[in-house]
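Listing S7. Sequence submitted for prediction.
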Amino acid sequence: MSVPETLLLAIAVLVAVRTLVSLMRRRAHQLTTEVQKQIDAQREREAEAKLKARRRGSH
């Protein structure tokens, strides 16, 4: 391989790795957001269930 070919290959590898890392970070952020929403929804359901149980218990 000549120097220009090696340089082009190195640049292509760098671009590919940076792109992959960017995509992986974006997906990780999406997953984190989705899981956090699920956790928040579950906590809200639990709080509502406790409130309903208290209301039933007080009557």
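Caption to Listing S7: primary sequence and predicted structure tokens for the chain studied. The first helix runs from residue 3 to 58. The helical segments are 3-58.
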